[in-house]
Specification:
This protein has about 775 residues and is α/β, with parallel strands linked by helices. About 60% of the residues lie in helices and about 10% in strands. The radius of gyration is 58 Å and the shape is rod-shaped.
């Protein structure tokens, strides 16, 4: 493409030089051939690609084609008429048609919405109209010695050039020239206008055509520009619209164009004054009226344009102010939302207190405040947990529970100092981070504050027409160089100790609590794998009938012997209870005990007693599990006794848990273990739905009946006898104790005096010694 463009430029240059140097018909022929060769690429391409070219640009191409044809006719006439081409002639119709097509095409190419471009083009046209008046129109009107028809036609051509110029400027300013091919077409139109102006100026002045080569060269260059547009890769007519905001802005180039157009009128007037010899003659001043009017029109157009810019600036300022207000409102809304999210992320949604995250931040800040040093000895952390708060939720609903927490939070805020951090950690657990400073007595004040919190919780609380009574367990730790996480862990250990100690109390952290917790963790980790590793075993201890010590039942006792050595039951059983491991371990014990007891029951008629925890009873399938084990092992339900503690009846002495009631209906008997150490009293015994009592070793007589009253033991035995509840005395270690119990009326006993717990095979020797023969009416307990 570049090679063909260079060839076209070379051909055009040759035509210009040749036509300038040659004379006569040869010059005209060379000139015409150059014009044809120059315009050919554009005309061929617009015919070939006419479907892809916009109609407006097809009009532009048609206008140049008609002009080229008119030039060809004019050249032929110039060659055939020795006296020159007559004026006017029929060929002028072709030129006027060409103007009409070019003007219509360029107006369409600018687009129907280019109003600002039209205004700017009018400004420029008004300036250049002064040149037309001075150089063309006025000389024709006052000095040309031609006929009326020729004069009219001579005036039409400059007017058409001026309109064509305005249309081209409008198309240029509206964005049609963003395509390079379009710019080349507009450049061709500009060169055409320049050549026409020079030609008509010389014709109007009546001067000799000593510079005819100049307008001929410009005409030929205009056709050459059209040819280059036809060779361009992008097609003519492809338009890239100028954004409305960009079209409204006056660029430096456009300002320069406006300034030049504004100066044309005064410059032309000055020129005329200089060349008019002081305006001699009475009518010479009249030719200055039109330039003055044009200058006034130009000023009005410029004022209109600047007024539009001012209005645009005002609208833009108003839009910017409105956008600024909207932006500020959006920023304020975002800031409010961020504050809300930040508050929600650091505060409890129910009580509005700080949450765990904010508590940790406050503790971190306190620890790092003094150049990274640890908090002073006056700093303390209290963890407060409401005792049995779930009972309140179960009785009145979670919504009422939340109301109670809100009311309690208000009460606790009144106790806390302004510099302290009161937080709700979740559920019914609160925390208070206290910053007392380093003054003496800070520890005592922290403990006094803990007792004050406990007293505030215990005080009756009126919520929604109800009076609520609460209690709290509190763990207290004094910070002495701990990290916040360590302090929280220490306070939690103290809180757990308060709950294990009976609740409704304050426990201060001691290092022994951490040691105990580490032991707890180690034991719980070992218990999780005790069954699969074969570390558990069931030992059995006989229950004998006094005074002969015949075995009537055996109690299954769990033993754990890991690789590190035996662990006492009182060490691992509480761990299993707290972690829930007692459920699978208890199921394993029940299975093993029932399997071992079947043979003893068939041979000696003995029962088996198995301890059951509250956690096991809470399992929904516990009764089904027991019945399945009995069916699988073949042990009759009457041979099984389940031992429970008095805590099972803590809420209602008349109510037996559903699982035990169902099992009791199948014949399984229920024994209450360690009677007298928990919630029981003698009157309470009348209400217990059980079958056997086991008297705790703390109530077993230590000597002869004359050495003590033994009133409680005697009362239990008599009451049990009246209700036909057999009683088993535990912890019998001497013959004297067995004798006293027999004298008091106790028929069944258990303890080291008769046999220590041992494996099933060791129990066979005790059976051989104490139960020499099977008694068909074997004396089961009760």
């Amino acid at each position: 493409m570049h090679g063909r463009a260079r060839l076209l430029v070379a051909a055009g240059a040759a035509a210009i030089v040749g036509s300038s140097l040659a004379a006569g018909p040869l010059a005209r022929v060379l000139w015409m051939l150059g014009c044809l060769a120059g315009a050919a690429p554009l005309l061929v391409r617009m015919v070939r690609d006419r479907r892809s070219v916009a109609p407006a640009w097809r009009l532009v191409g048609a206008g140049f084609a008609v002009r080229l044809l008119s030039d060809l006719v004019w050249t032929v006439e110039a060659l055939t008429h020795r006296g020159g081409v007559p004026f006017p002639s029929w060929n002028d119709l072709g030129y006027l048609t060409s103007y009409a097509l070019l003007i219509a095409g360029l107006i369409g190419a600018a687009g129907g919405r280019a109003r600002l471009a039209l205004l700017d083009a009018s400004i420029v046209m008004a300036g250049f109209a002064v040149i037309d008046w001075m150089l063309l129109l006025h000389p024709y009107l006052h000095h040309a010695a031609i006929g009326p028809l020729a004069l009219s036609l001579a005036l039409v051509y400059p007017v058409c050039d001026l309109v064509l110029f305005a249309a081209a400027v409008r198309a240029l300013l509206s964005g049609a020239a963003r395509n390079r091919a379009n710019r080349l077409v507009l450049a061709g139109a500009g060169l055409l206008l320049a050549a026409n102006t020079i030609f008509f100026a010389h014709a109007a002045s009546g001067s000799t055509r000593d510079v005819a080569w100049l307008d001929n060269a410009l005409w030929l260059c205009s056709y050459l520009a059209l040819g280059l547009a036809g060779l361009h890769p992008r097609p003519v007519g492809e338009r890239s619209a100028v954004p409305a905001a960009a079209a409204a802005v006056v660029s430096p180039r456009r300002l320069l164009l406006f300034g030049a157009a504004t100066l044309l009128g005064p410059a032309a007037t000055v020129y005329r004054l200089i060349t008019a010899d002081g305006l001699r003659g009475s009518g010479e001043w009249q030719h200055l009226v039109v330039p003055s009017i044009l200058a006034a029109v130009l000023s009005v157009l410029l004022v209109t344009r600047l007024g539009g810019l001012a209005r645009l600036a005002q609208r833009r300022q108003a839009e910017l102010e409105a956008n600024g207000r909207r932006l500020q409102a959006a920023l304020d809304e975002r800031a409010a939302l961020e504050d809300q999210l930040r508050h929600g992320a650091l505060h409890d949604p129910v009580t509005g207190l700080a949450n765990r995250a904010l508590l940790a931040q406050r503790m971190e800040w306190s620890l790092d405040r003094a150049d990274g040093a640890a908090a002073g000895p006056g700093h303390a952390l209290l963890l407060l947990d409401l005792d049995r708060f779930t009972d309140l939720n179960d009785a009145h609903g979670i919504a009422f529970g939340d109301e109670v927490l809100v009311a309690l939070a208000h009460r606790l805020r009144a106790v806390a100092a302004p510099g302290d951090t009161l937080a709700r950690l979740g559920g019914d657990e609160f925390a208070l981070f206290v910053e007392h400073g380093t003054a003496p007595g800070s520890h005592e004040r922290a403990e006094q504050l803990a007792e004050l919190l406990r007293a505030e919780v215990k005080a009756p609380l009126r919520v929604g027409g109800r009076v609520v009574h609460l209690a709290a367990s509190i763990g207290l730790v004094h910070l002495d160089g701990q990290e916040p996480r360590e302090a929280m862990a220490d306070a939690d250990l103290a809180l757990r100790a308060a709950k294990r100690g009976g609740r409704d109390r304050v426990v201060r952290y001691r290092s022994e609590l951490r040691s105990a917790r580490e032991t707890f963790t180690r034991i719980s980790a070992g218990l999780r794998h005790a069954i699969e590793r074969g570390e558990l075993a069931v030992h059995y201890q006989p229950v004998v009938e006094l005074p002969g010590a015949r075995i009537v039942a055996v109690e299954a006792l769990l033993r754990w012997t890991p690789a590190s050595g035996p662990v006492p039951p009182d060490a691992f059983i509480p761990v299993a209870e707290e972690t829930g491991l007692i459920v699978p371990i208890g199921a394993w014990v029940l299975q093993r005990a029932c399997r071992d007891a079947r043979g003893w029951y068939e041979r000696f008629g003995t029962s088996i007693t198995v301890n059951v925890s509250v956690r096991q009873l809470a399992e929904p399938g516990f009764a089904d599990e027991v019945l399945t084990v009995l069916a699988r092992t073949g042990l009759p339900a009457a041979a099984l006794v389940l031992e429970i503690t008095e805590s099972v009846f803590a809420g209602d002495a008349d109510a037996l848990p559903g699982a035990l009631a169902r099992l009791r209906g199948h014949g399984v008997r229920i024994a209450i273990d360690d009677f007298g150490t928990g919630y029981s009293s003698l009157s309470y015994l009348n209400q217990l739905p059980v079958d056997i009592l086991k008297i705790d070793r703390s109530f077993v007589p230590t000597g002869a009946a004359s050495d003590g009253d033994h009133a409680f033991t005697r009362a239990v035995l008599q009451l049990g006898s009246s209700r036909r509840l057999p009683a088993i005395a535990e912890g019998i270690e001497t013959a004297e104790q067995a004798e006293v119990l027999h004298e008091l009326g106790c028929r069944l006993a258990q303890g080291y005096h008769f046999a220590r717990p041992g494996p099933a095979e060791h129990l066979e020797a005790a059976f051989a010694r104490l139960n020499p023969a099977r008694d068909a009416a074997a004396g089961r307990p009760g």
